[in-house]
Amino acid sequence: MSERQMQIGEVAERTGLSLRTIRHYEEVGLVTPSARSKGGFRLYTEADVERLMVIRRMKPLDFSLEEMRDLLEITDRFAATDDPPADEERERLRERLDAYHKMADARCETLRARLEMAEEFASTLRRLGS
Predict the structure, then answer these.
(1) On the CB side of 120, how many CA atoms lie within 13 Å of its CA?
(2) How far apart are CA 104 and CA 20, in angstroms?
(3) What does the H/E/C string look like for 64-124?
(4) In this structure, are residues 68 and 25 in contact, taking their beta carbons and an 8 Å threshold?
(5) Each residue of 51-83: pLDDT tens digit?
(6) Entry pTM
(7) Which of 68, 33, 67 is nearest to 54 (CA)?
(8) Containing H/E element for 43?
């Protein structure tokens, strides 16, 4: 049985990304549709949707397109079954992945602090208005 394929509209609905954003990610080489219909429509698989979700989750943490591309390359290498990474490469990939993990944690912490300040400000405004 072949894997179910979705057109871009369904993918946009599932990921919360606009059609324009999904097309942009294709243009910059982050997510290429797995196939095209006879009519030329982009067709996406579940793996393509997962890839888009990784990008969507990186976006609020201000990762650059290059960093997104690098992280996707790392995950692609880990998932490669036809040419799995050897021990030395696997170790290098793990180190790169750990660096992204640390960056994500630090950026989450920064966002938490900014949110706390914003909530304090909103609370101050509420008190001033009452």
Answers:
(1) 6
(2) 26
(3) CHHHHHHHHHHHHHHHCCCCCCCHHHHHHHHHHHHHHHHHHHHHHHHHHHHHHHHHHHHHH
(4) no
(5) 999 999 999 999 999 999 999 999 999 888 888
(6) 0.82
(7) 68
(8) strand 42-44
